[in-house]
Design goal:
The chain has 13 helices and 14 strands. The chain is of the alpha/beta class. The strands form 2 sheets. Strands 6-7-8-9-10-11-12-13 form an 8-stranded mixed barrel, surrounded by 4 helices. A hairpin with a 5-residue loop joins strand 6 and strand 7. It binds ligand C2E and calcium ion (CA) (2 copies).
């Protein structure tokens, strides 16, 4: 099977890198518009899909069947099935005939994650649906929280935290998206919008830490895509810190190490979030060549006076100094917390004592809205 210009491999690679793809096609499968999910993902090459044949992405038998079935679909009706590929795993394909422009069809290809994490239950499905809806329909905001020098309180940079309309905390949607392998969508958007804001505001003291999930870090094609997104913006690379969250969940440490190196080679700093939350944190630090780590908030909140915690923090902070990496303490709520960090030698601090996360209006102002009402 070849695409119109014979460049089949390139097209397939591109589609898989996108992880999820939503395009408008004609009845032959030719891509007419790629401004739905594809641009929601800020896929830098989304428009290059136009004119390609999207049916090339689907296994041969299914694509032949689909070609026959397209015209049989009534306006607004959908077809959905799972496409099992030997190499790449499984993908869900959904095609809908446009209710108004009946010559066109919306095609959604969503890849299920390589690891066999089957959706736990219906409740999880609903959360994932809410996540996708918020991300696709722009019901997403960003809050910025300062990270300061522990000793002086001087602002070092701000962390960008996702906020979903109608949700008190982002945690439920984010963890459901991680479990279902969809978190990369948010990570693309946050990195792209963060890089755009840095390019818009050249003040060197304006620096941002953006979170990406450990789940994305273990998918090399996602990391390559994140680097391509960064490469599309002009800003001093040292002004961006990428925090790897859920680092307690990293399973494929070799792949994660490749991901860290790839991100760092693009010039940004990489920091390990939630350090100490899981038993394997030290292994990660040994394997991942990061620029910094952030202590898990439990170091302060579990019991600030706990001498074990403070001894651990002190020795980890010291190790960071020796490794030449920066350490940050979070959930600093009281002056006592700040003192504990200072005493332990943790250079940076973040928490309500210095500033709560504040919504940054217009953080995503550059985004075009995604296609509505599909999938
Ligand atoms: P995190 O990266 O560890 O972020 C710090 C969390 O601590 C944030 O919760 C923040 O609002 C909260 N926090 C800040 N200061 C204090 C304090 O003094 N006391 C207490 N008790 N909490 C404080 P939030 O915003 O609910 O985010 C929760 C988690 O969701 C984040 O934990 C991160 O793992 C994830 N997350 C948030 N935004 C993004 C994102 O854009 N992308 C990804 N992949 N994950 C994100
Ligand atoms: Ca973080
Ligand atoms: Ca954290």
């Amino acid at each position: 099977m070849t695409s119109p210009d014979g460049n089949e491999d390139w097209f397939r690679d591109l589609a898989f890198a996108a992880a999820d793809l939503l395009v408008t096609i004609d009845a032959q499968g030719v891509v007419l518009r790629a401004d739905g999910d594809a641009s929601m993902l800020h896929h830098p090459s989304a428009e290059r899909l136009i004119g390609k044949n999207a049916l090339e992405l689907i296994s041969e038998g299914d694509s032949r069947r689909l070609r026959d079935d397209l015209w049989a679909l009534g306006p607004g009706r959908r077809l959905a099935w799972d496409d099992i590929l030997e190499i790449e795993g499984q993908r869900r394909i959904l095609v809908q005939r446009d209710p108004r422009q009946t010559e066109t069809f919306n095609l959604l290809v969503s890849r299920t994650p390589r690891t066999n994490r089957i959706r736990a239950n219906r409740a999880d499905d609903i959360l994932v649906e809410r996540f996708r809806d918020a991300v696709m329909n722009g019901r997403l905001k960003a809050a910025l929280q300062p990270v300061v020098e522990t000793r002086t309180g001087a602002v070092s940079h701000h962390e960008v935290l996702a906020r979903f309309d109608g949700e008190e905390s982002p945690v439920n949607l984010i963890t459901a998206a991680e479990r279902s392998g969809q978190i990369c969508h948010l990570d693309y958007i946050m990195i792209d919008a963060g890089a755009h804001r840095l390019a818009q505001n050249p003040d060197p003291s304006f620096r941002l830490a953006v979170n990406i999930s450990g789940e994305s870090l273990q998918r090399y094609e996602v990391v390559e895509e994140l680097c391509a997104v960064i490469a599309g913006h002009a800003f001093g690379r040292t002004r961006m810190i990428v925090e790897i969250t859920e680092s307690a969940e990293i399973e494929d440490i070799e792949m994660a190490a490749r991901g860290v190196n790839k991100l760092r080679s693009s010039g940004v700093s990489v920091s390990l979030d939630d350090f100490g939350a899981g038993a394997a944190s030290f292994n990660y630090l040994r394997a991942l060549d990061v620029d910094g780590l952030k202590f898990d908030g439990s170091f302060l909140t579990s019991s600030p006076e706990n001498s074990r915690n403070s001894a651990l923090m002190r020795s980890i902070a010291r190790m960071c100094l020796e490794l030449g990496i920066a350490s940050v303490g979070e959930r600093v709520e009281t002056e006592q917390d700040r003192k504990a960090l200072q005493y332990a030698g943790v250079r940076f601090a973040q928490g309500y004592l210095f500033g709560t996360p504040e919504i940054y209006e217009g953080f995503f102002s550059r985004r075009r809205p995604g296609l509505r009402g599909v999938a």
